[in-house]
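Lecture 7, part B: from sequences to assemblies.

Below are the input chains for today's worked example.
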Amino acid sequence: MSFSSKTIWKEFSHSKIGIVGIAILVILFSMSIVAFVTIPLDSFKTWNDPASWLLYPKSAQPAWVNYFQSEKIPEHLILSPVMSSQQVDSVSVLTNSFLVNYQYDGFPSDFIYQYTAKYSGSPLLQLSVTRPDGIVLQLVSTSLPFAKDATTYSSMIFSTQDIIAKNILDKKTKYAFSLDGMSSEKIIFSKLDENVILKGPYVFQVRLYDVSEKPVLSKSNLILGGKVYGIMGTDELRRDLSVGLLWGTPLALFIGITVSIGSVVFGLIYGVYAGYKGRVTDEVLMRFNDIIYAMPALPLLIILAVTIGNSIFLMVGFLVIFGWVGIAKVSRSMALQIKTLQYVEASKLMGQKDYKIIFKHILPQLLPYAFASIAISVPGAITTEAGLSFLGLGDPTFPTWGQILHDASSYSAAARGMWWWILPPGIMIAVTGLAFVFMGQAMDGIINPKLRR
Amino acid sequence: MGFKKFLAKRAITMFGVLMATLLVTIILVGSNMDSISKQSAALEIRQQVTNNKNLLSSFKTSEQLDSYIENQVKQRITALGLDQPWYSPQRIGLSMYKILTLDFGHAKFLTSDSGSSDVKDIILEKLPRTILLFTTATAIVSVLGIFLGTVAASKVNSKIDKITSGLAIISSSFPVWWIGVLMIFVFAFLYPIFPARATPDVSISDPGYLGSLLYHMALPLITLVIIGFGSWAYLVRNFLVGVLQEDFIMAKRAAGIDEKRILYSHALKNAAPPIVTILALSLSGSLGGAIITEAVFDWPGMGRLYFEAISVLDLPVIIGATYVLTAFFLVSVFVADVLYGYFDPRVRRE
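Predicted structure of the full complex, as structure tokens:
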């Protein structure tokens, strides 16, 4: 029963599922790195803040569903501008244009222009749209509130504002049908002869005129409301699920790996110490082990989470409390075998200290088993944490996969057919679990060659 | 060590575990429990006084009434022993004694279907339903698992062996409750075959109650079976593969005994001890897992009761349910131990 790390790796690399497991794990780790790099840490705080998701659509399907159907559902677009500025005599003009090639089979649900302007005086803001057929519709022409000194002003223009409807009515003679009571986006994106969607490139233009000084638009976004969004869609609270799912990856890996390493290290030392010492120490330690072993874990975990607290770090600690017992049992019986080996007895006779024998002669023998146990106990930790979060007992500040599923079930996503809210988090949990199970299986096959035949 | 001594030792350990779990639970919820019982004592006194018209009219001012009530509350609290801090040995001892004798007190919010707020009544009403669902599931899973595992073990590395192992690995990585949500999504909403809520919608006295119960049980049962039988088959297969390499099997083969007979009567019999142990353990394990599963399917058993009690922090129910769940868990662990000791005498000698 002795292994060198080289032979283990050689055996491991021959195992197909072991390699698959490592490959999945590498993908998950790179997803975590992507999460850390692309999404700033601050967005943790914004996950539960409804104000930061205002621009996103409510319960939108992922955008790629359009590939599978002939009727293209309008996508929710958050457009960034192309900026240019020019000076005409004493008037400086800042132009932001938004180009959208509209190829969907439905009208957008609405549009919002959101901006933050820095100016002094009272600049004039104009919003217009150039349709694919060349018709230009003036939508809004408004002056920003007067300010003597340099000031910053944030506001939004909504498609539902009366002024837009009124301005469009100037061009009503071009349309062959009555525009009464129609919402403005249905007129803007409509063909002239009948009220169906006109596909093609639309250019929305925002112009800011000022005489005194050059105005600046520090924030300028045009949002076209739609029913599909992004890679993963959004939930009932308008949150972009791809952000939650991406952030869930490092969290799940953190929980799973910390819990399993903590349990295995503690269990290993506990079991080996009990087995090596023997007699009364062994008896007392193993009775205690029996007690924890026979406790029902989930009810106690729930009580601990409710009474002590549910921060993610406490949760890791609670899971370790119930995770180490099985490992302690096995490593004790392994230690019982190893301590009778001659070289251990010899070093004992030579007066080696107990802890040196344990750490130098016994524990290294158990390392392959320890690695296999770490891999095998990761999925359990992840699913248990996900289960607790699903019951609403998890740390609500972090978007773990269980937390997302909890939100899904409290907004009855299943009843409303919101598959994109239910499927991905569960699949992520399972795939992460599978990676570790695969690796554990491969290592198990090396340690217990009997099973392979 | 004789079998009796082995039994006695295991029984004592189990009782110790029960006490330890109870103690941990009481310590964890103790301070909350304390304020709740004080509040309910005060409420009771106030109600008694306001219901007693003669007593009420004998007070001239409201201050007098208040001081009288305060006095009474103090007396009651002393009489109940609540004046001592909740962590005093007497009080912990008393509450443990009460729980041991199944006196769980009254629930704060939750009631049984028949309207009783006695925790014992509530638990007695919910427990049979949990046992019905999970025992049925475990029975189906184990029969399917033993059969499939035996077939896989007889043809190691065959297609069916690989499928069994694959199924076991994949099904063990999915959380049961997630599969539950998915099953509800597909079979209750996409194709409305089964009801989404597993709570039967007719009253117990109705003759169609049993039918309705079984119909509502179908979806959770199917989910539990789908998730469970793969890993069962895999375990049985591994035990059998181990046994099939033993010398006595070789001897049987050499003697020309039919391969099927070796497998089903000789090998399976020798793999029985671990299989029986796992059967008992998985029964008790499923009771713990019932909390999430029942919450997902809305199955009106112990698990959902526990979940509801947690969400409104109904402490008497939490303590009672924890006690009953732990007791059931321990009984099945004990049964597993006994069966193992019975089947495999080597264990007793350890």
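Note for the exam: The CA atoms of residues 44 and 73 of chain B lie 9 Å apart. Keep this in mind when comparing with the next example.
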